[in-house]
Amino acid sequence: MEQQDVLPFEKSRQKQKKGYLKEVRKNLPFLMMALPGAIWLIFFFYIPVLGNVVAFKDFRFFPGGFLDSLKQSEWVGFENFKFLFSSSNAYIITRNTLLYNLGFIIIGTIIAVIIAIILSELRSKRMVKIYQTSMLFPYFISWVIISYFVYAFLSPEKGLINLLFFTPETGIDWYTQAKYWPAILLFMGIWKSLGYNSIVYFATIMGINPTYYEAAMVDGASKWQQIKHVTLPQIIPLISILTILAVGNIFRADFGLFYQIPKNSGALYNVTSVLDTYIYNGLTSSGDIGMAAAAGLYQSVVGCLLVVVTNLIARRFDPESALF
C-alpha cells in the first residue's frame, strides 16, 4: 500500500518538473534578457553586503589586500556609529536630510501629478511629446553641468540675476547667504526629477479605462469632477507605492545636488549639509573608511525599517495601495 501511495506522488513531482522545464524553455529569451541585470545586481548589490562588516572595524589597509586588511583590522563594535550621533552637527544634518526629502516627496509628487493630468488633457499628441521631452531632458543632465548653469545665474560678480535686478552695490552674494538656499535646493531637486515623475503618472493615467470617463460624462460630470472622481482614485495606488519607496530613501540625499550646486561653500553648511555630504567631507578629512561604512549601513537599515512601517500603514488604510 505504501509503494502504491508513493508512485502517484513521484509521478506528480515528475510532471511538475517537466512543466517547470517547459516554462523555462518557453521563456528562455526573456530570462537571457534579464540575466545581465541579475548579474549586475549580484555583483554590485548582494556581494558588497558582506563588506558591511567594515562598519564594525577600525579598518586599516595591509599589504595582503582587502580580505587580509579586513581580517587584521581591529574589531571596535559600534564605535564607528558614534561618528554620526556624537557630533555637534548631528542635529543639523539629520534635520536637513529629513526636511529636504519630505519637501521633495510632498511638493514633487503634487506637481508631478498636476503636470501629468494637464498633459493627459491635451489633444495634440505632438505637443505632449514636445513637453515631455523638454521636461525629461534635465533628468539626464549631470549635477556638475547644472551647477555651472546655476553659477551663471547666481555668480556674485557677473551672475545674470545680479546684473538684471540689482546694482553692483546692492547685489547679493548668493554663495554666502544661507537664507536663500532652502528654496533654491528644493526648486532644483524638483525641477530635475519632475519630467521623469510626471511621465510615470502620465502613463498610468493614459492606461485608465475610457469607459469610466464616458460613464462620468453621461452622468453630467464636469472635467474637474472627472479628474477628482475618476483620475485621482485610479492613480492613488501608484502614488502610494512610489511614496513608500521614496520614504525608504528619506535618510539619503542626492549628493550631487547638495555638494555641487552650493559649491560646498562652508558659509552654507547650516542649510546645505546633509548626511551624504557630511560623510564625504568627514571621509576626505579623516580617511576613516569604517565611519563612512557605518553611516551607509545606518542609512540602509533605517531606510528598510521605514519602508516596512510605511507599507504597514498604507496596507491598513488600503491593501491595494501597499507595496507588499
TrEMBL record:
Transmembrane recorded as keyword: yes
Spans traversing the lipid bilayer: 28-47, 98-122, 134-154, 174-191, 235-255, 289-314
Limits of the ABC transmembrane type-1 domain: 94-310
One GO-annotated biological process of the protein: transmembrane transport
PROSITE patterns associated with the record: ABC_TM1
Keywords assigned by UniProt, alphabetized: Cell membrane, Membrane, Transmembrane, Transmembrane helix, Transport
Compartments where found: Cell membrane
Highest taxon of source: Bacteria
Any Pfam family matching the protein: BPD_transp_1
Keyword Transmembrane helix: yes
Membrane-protein topology: Multi-pass membrane protein
A GO cellular component annotation in the UniProt record: plasma membrane
Main subcellular location of this protein, as a coarse class: membrane
InterPro entries registered for this protein in UniProt: MetI-like (IPR000515), MetI-like_sf (IPR035906), UgpAE/MalFG_permease (IPR050809)
PANTHER family (alphabetical): BLL4140 PROTEIN
Family assignment from sequence similarity: Belongs to the binding-protein-dependent transport system permease family.
Protein name, per record: ABC transporter permease
